[in-house]
Specification:
The chain is mainly alpha-helical. The protein has a single domain, classed as Four Helix Bundle (Hemerythrin (Met), subunit A) (Up-down Bundle). About 60% of the residues lie in helices and about 0% in strands. The chain contains 6 helices and no strands. Helix 1 packs parallel to helix 6, helix 3 packs parallel to helix 5 and helix 3 runs antiparallel to helix 6. The protein is globular.
Length: about 180
């Protein structure tokens, strides 16, 4: 059983096996992002800082796409689900970021929460098949397949990097600070 901190985040286990440690840190980063974005309306989700066009709404949609891309498409070679399957990425490489302004907060939160839940199921499926050494169904252009271990580390890094952005944006909105 994990310890829950004052923001409602599960602390990663301090002395667990590789699987539990990786999943613990990923869950912690996801929970940090949920904390940084919670309770915001359309106005809050559309705030940017300085010259950046990055918003928390865009980040919610982008991170939902990243979950879908790595765990459904790349790991399992499954066709992307809506809304991703209909996107013309060649027409707008940043469609996820750019289209978020058209979505309601409820849509954005639901999209991200559903993507995280689905990723959990897909990771569990891969772990049951071969553990963290499970190789991706898809390969990079040079033919290299990557392990689930690599994907989990990458997603920890991805979420942690965007949590830093979320910190700055959220502090601008209402002064909320912290990890």
């Amino acid at each position: 059983m994990s310890t829950i901190d004052e923001q409602g985040r599960p602390e990663p286990p301090p002395n667990a096996d590789e699987r539990a440690t990786l999943l613990g840190f990923l869950d912690f980063q996801r929970a940090t992002f949920a904390w940084k974005t919670q309770g915001l309306d359309s106005s809050g989700l559309s705030v940017s800082v300085g010259d950046s066009s990055m918003t928390l709404g865009g980040m919610l949609k982008y991170l939902a796409w990243v979950e879908q891309y790595w765990f459904a498409y790349f790991l399992h070679d499954r066709t992307p689900e809506a809304p991703w399957k209909d996107v013309d990425w060649e027409a707008d490489r940043d469609w996820d970021w750019n289209s978020a302004a058209e979505d309601s907060p409820d849509q954005l939160y639901a999209l991200w929460n559903e993507a995280v839940a689905r990723s959990g199921q897909l990771v569990d499926e891969a772990l049951a098949d071969g553990g963290v050494s499970t190789m991706s169904a898809k390969a990079w252009p040079d033919g290299t397949q990557i392990s689930l271990r690599w994907m989990l580390c990458h997603m920890i890094e991805e979420d942690a990097r965007h949590n830093g952005h979320a910190d700055l944006i959220r502090e601008t909105i209402d002064g909320l600070t912290g990890e």
